[in-house]
């Protein structure tokens, strides 16, 4: 069957709607992004950052841009949704993939169809042709801080938070296995094969997803410098360049793409695709779980491979890596012919549920970390000393400014206005 799927990839047109290329763009990206804002420096529980820059209602401050009016949190969510906007000719979702085992210029989506290939999402976030790049979003932030009108300030802040949403969309995609395993997954999105994205957006799993988003896993990567000095250190959140194919990581000490690729299959790369991990071997434990087959409407015991080594191990307890046998229902129903059927590993709702326990908290936590890095600079004024002329008029004001940035970074090359 896997060979059949590969053959179909060669003949099926890949002119898909934009929501076929990431977490569901209308639901999952929005809630992941808005939740990330709640766990970032922007949240009232983390301090008064937004109040300090003049947004007195914190995440609920309304900002107007053109004919649209949304609050800070909603602008972040909207940006994350619109990163997937457009059609096959105009959208940017081909730039939403990153393979951490390849050099960054070669790490993007690479298929037999040249017209759908793209650059690495890590690079796209900082590319000058990206209308919502890191640099352009920072420029919007600067404009908001120095604007002389309320309308101009509101518009620039709206663009700032919308731009942040666009960028954290790319982080969230790196918590989706297909996006770090060079798997465009068109058959999955057309319903031919089940997929993790559909599991996450299903109303049946809404409470599970909500509880997982409420326990974010924050990165512990070093953000003082990029693995490539030519880029802003946010690249570390994608790829800290620590995984080399032989040292599978777990935990939060690597980029999210490194963690995801090593520990989870995508639907179309189980046992192939050139990725060293995860691996299924004769030593891989097999466990049994109850499985509700949506095709047959029956529930029966299904065997699963348990991942208990080589990176993430769920504290040594393991987690479901893949179902052993896609055709198990037919093997049970037609025992006389069961020996003729091949055993094909597959991902199902039980597997997706286990994957989600690790990937959704990281999607939120790594997104929040990027927000924190974007708004990381804080300055404290400790002394104000005015100078006056002979008539008592203030001619000069001397300020003592302390760098309160928690990362300890030096501030240089700027000016006060």
Write a structural description.
With 417 residues, the protein is an alpha+beta fold. It is built from 14 helices and seven strands. The strands form three sheets. It has a three-stranded antiparallel sheet with strand order 3-4-5, covered by helices on one side. A two-stranded antiparallel sheet has the order 1-2. Strands 6-7 form a two-stranded antiparallel ribbon. α2 runs antiparallel to α4 and α4 crosses α7. The protein is elongated. The N terminus is likely disordered.
Low-confidence stretches: 1-21
What amount of the residues lies in strands? Answer: 5-15%
Mean pLDDT: 87
Order of helices and strands: HHHEEHHHHHHHHHEEEHHEE
Label the structural class: alpha+beta
**Global Rg:** 24 Å
User: Largest sheet at a glance?
Assistant: 3 strands, antiparallel
Shape: elongated
Report strand order across the widest sheet. Answer: 3-4-5
Q: How many angstroms separate the termini?
A: 65 Å
Number-wise, the strands total: 7
Instruction: Count every helix, treating DSSP H or I runs of 4 or more residues as helices.
Output: 14
Give the assembly state of these chains: single chain
**What proportion of the residues is helical, as a percent range?**
25-40%
């Amino acid at each position: 069957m896997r060979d059949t799927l590969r053959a179909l990839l060669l003949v099926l047109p890949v002119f898909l709607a934009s929501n076929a290329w990431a977490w569901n763009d209308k639901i999952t990206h929005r809630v992941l992004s808005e939740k990330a804002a709640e766990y970032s420096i922007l949240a009232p529980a983390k301090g008064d950052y937004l109040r300090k820059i003049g947004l007195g209602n914190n995440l609920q401050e309304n900002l107007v841009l053109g004919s649209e009016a949304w609050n800070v949190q909603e602008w972040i969510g909207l940006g994350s949704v619109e990163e997937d906007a457009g059609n096959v000719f105009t959208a940017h979702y081909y730039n939403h993939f990153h393979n951490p085992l390849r050099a960054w210029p070669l790490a993007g989506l690479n298929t037999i169809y040249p017209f759908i290939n793209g650059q690495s999402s890590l690079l796209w976030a900082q590319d000058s042709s990206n209308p919502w790049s890191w640099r352009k979003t920072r420029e919007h932030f600067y404009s908001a801080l120095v604007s002389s009108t309320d309308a101009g300030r509101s518009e620039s802040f709206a663009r700032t938070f919308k731009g942040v949403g666009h960028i954290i969309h790319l982080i969230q995609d790196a918590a989706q296995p297909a996006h770090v395993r060079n798997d465009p997954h068109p058959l999955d999105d057309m319903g031919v094969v089940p997929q993790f994205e559909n599991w996450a957006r299903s109303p049946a799993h809404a409470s599970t997803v909500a509880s997982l988003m409420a326990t974010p896993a924050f990165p512990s990567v070093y953000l003082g410098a990029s693995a490539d000095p030519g880029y802003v250190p946010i690249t570390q959140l994608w790829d800290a360049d620590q995984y080399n194919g032989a040292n599978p990581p777990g935990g939060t000490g690597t980029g999210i793409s490194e963690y995801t690729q090593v520990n989870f299959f995508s639907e179309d790369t189980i046992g192939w695709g050139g990725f060293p991990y995860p691996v299924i071997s004769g030593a891989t434990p097999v466990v049994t779980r109850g499985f509700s087959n949506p095709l047959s409407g029956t529930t029966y015991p299904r065997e699963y491979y348990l991942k208990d080594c080589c990176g993430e191990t769920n504290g040594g307890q393991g987690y479901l890596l893949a179902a052993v046998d896609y055709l198990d229902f037919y093997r049970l129903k037609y025992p006389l012919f069961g020996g003729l059927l091949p055993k094909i590993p597959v991902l199902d709702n039980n597997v997706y549920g286990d994957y989600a326990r690790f990937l959704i908290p990281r999607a939120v936590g790594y997104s929040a970390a990027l927000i924190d890095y974007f708004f990381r600079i804080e300055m404290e004024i400790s002394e104000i000393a005015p100078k006056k002329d002979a008539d008592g008029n203030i001619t000069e004001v001397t300020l003592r400014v302390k760098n309160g940035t928690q990362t300890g970074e030096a501030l240089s090359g700027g000016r006060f206005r």
